[in-house]
Amino acid sequence: MNAWIRVSMGFVLLEFLFHGYELSRSFASSFQFHDADYVGMQEVVRNLLRGNGYLSTYYSAKGEGSYLTHHFSPSLVFFLPFESFGLARWGYAIGVYFYLSLGTILWTELLLKKRTKQNGSGKIDLVYLLLFGIIANLYLYRLGTSYHFEVLVFPLSAVFFFYYEKQKLSLGLIVSLFAFLFVKEDIVIYFILFFMPSVIWNWISRFRAERNKNKEKKTFTNFTSDTGFLILLICLAYFLFVFFLLPYFIVSNPEHWFGALTKEYPESYKQVTSIPKSIQIFMELIMSSGTGFILNIPSFLGLLSIYLTHALSQRPWHHEIYSYYCYTMIPFLLYTGIVWLREKQSVSVPIFFLFLTLLFFRNLQDSNYPISLQKVGLPKQEERQAKEVTRELESIGNQKILRGSPHVFSQYNLSFFLPLDATLYPLNQVSLTVGKCASKECYLVIAPKFTKEVLVPRSFIESKREAFQKGMLIFKGEWIEVWKLRFDANNKP
After folding, report:
1. First vs last Cα of the chain: how many Å apart?
2. Which of 324, 351, 373 corresponds to the end of one domain?
3. Neighbours of 125 (CB within 10 A)
4. What's 378's DSSP letter?
5. H helices of 30-62, where?
6. Is 369 exposed, middle or buried (0-12, 13-18, 19+ CB in 10 A)?
7. What is the SS3 assignment for 284?
8. Are 147 and 55 found together in one domain?
9. pTM for the predicted model, two decimal places
10. Which one of 202, 218, 343, 413 has the largest count of C-beta atoms within 10 Å of its C-beta?
């Protein structure tokens, strides 16, 4: 039976990967892989490959800082293999879908590992419901199709919970824990919130058991031998390091991620403000992976605590669980399925189809599940423009205008199509030309008429020519223009 389940999940996964392939092509052809966040994130990984550490030209105030001051995410190294293949700028996208697929496989295996062959008559294996909670999970779909590195929480959480289920402190548990925590600095907060109720619950249960047996002296020893308690201690220590020691004693840049996490936004930024709406979102989240954890009080309290960080957040995208921001809850929601399987291996047919109906009903309410390729595409007029811009980009590539490993200051929607060897910078960092263009040739690649005014005004793009007008215009098409600049040792062009 498990073999049949694996084959079925494999077919579903292949279908999703094909959808991801088509979706990626549509995003690229319609110039929607922008600097924020696709190219900006990929350039961090590219700089790792170049030996520049976590240098971020997009997410640092002066274009020369470390990405770790924006988000403490050392686990970005997991994307290095895909960038090392030299697949133009597709490596990062391939990595995202690879880790989404890997997470699906690992969580499937984790659920099957907890499945027994006992099944009462008139009942359905609970594992089927939980697997539907993976393959038809709206929030996992959003996580994958957002092209964000937070997708790493999906496979890495499966590895962590595999070791955690053994309830034994081991090297594998510690390594998997830190790999998980290293995805993003705030994950440790959700770890603490999720594990705290379970640890307290276990303490109370053990204390009562010990008291009834008149063995109070052994109570503290039992507490410290609890794996969950030890994990909680590690997370608390890590929290103090990342949120206090690192920002104030190691990071010299005052505009670090700690400030971003605590920044307040106007109330008008929020789209979800009512209590009933927040309750609705919470119910939709828990329904996406089954509701068995309601039977487990510590799991329920843990997930509720995590959701409250969203409901009370001043950051609009975090408050609304926008796009990939479901990464905060997905691993813990899935783990509650493991908790459910420990206590119950099957459910009645009516309950199974009730949960399944609610799951698909929620998915049908979202007009972007799945994302329609027609929505991604451009209107006829813009499609014609995009094709002309594409031809000019191909001409620039064929003529090898951007030679060597130059510094390229590029327009937000053109960067994806530029050579891998180029170190890319956003247009708002053109002030760096004096320092950067003394060691290497610098280029400006813009298409002022090919922009969306609501994103980046044409006037802003055109204003960046001034920094390069001391150089030379080496390519001029109907849409794209390329400027070249190089300073000598005396900072003269």
Report:
1. 71
2. 373
3. 20
4. P
5. 40-50
6. middle
7. helix
8. yes
9. 0.92
10. 413
Q: What is the pLDDT of residues 35-66, one digit of tens each?
A: 988 999 999 999 999 999 999 999 887 788 88
In angstroms, rounded to a whole number, what is the distance separating the alpha carbons of residues 144 and 330? 12
Are residues 397 and 338 located together in one domain of the fold? no
- Domain residues for 83? 2-373
> From the CB of residue 74, how many other CB atoms can be counted at a distance below 10 Å?
16
Q: Are 346 and 124 in contact (CB under 8 A)?
A: yes
Whether 357 and 430 map to the same domain: the answer is no
The Cα-based distances of 382 to 61, 356, 377, 386, 390 in angstroms read 33, 41, 9, 6, 12
Containing H/E element for 483?
Answer: strand 481-485
CA distance 95 to 98: 5
What are the two backbone dihedrals, phi and then psi, of residue 458, each rounded to the nearest 5 degrees?
-60, -40
49, two tokens:
């490959």
Tokens representing 6 are 């694996």
DSSP characters for 354-401?
Answer: HHHHHHHHHHHT-TTSSPPHHHHSPPHHHHHHHHHHHHHHHHHHHTT-
Token match 């494999």: residue?
10
The b/e string for 299-331 (b: 16+ C-beta within 10 A; e otherwise) is: bbbbbebbbebbbebebeebbbbbbbbbbbbbb
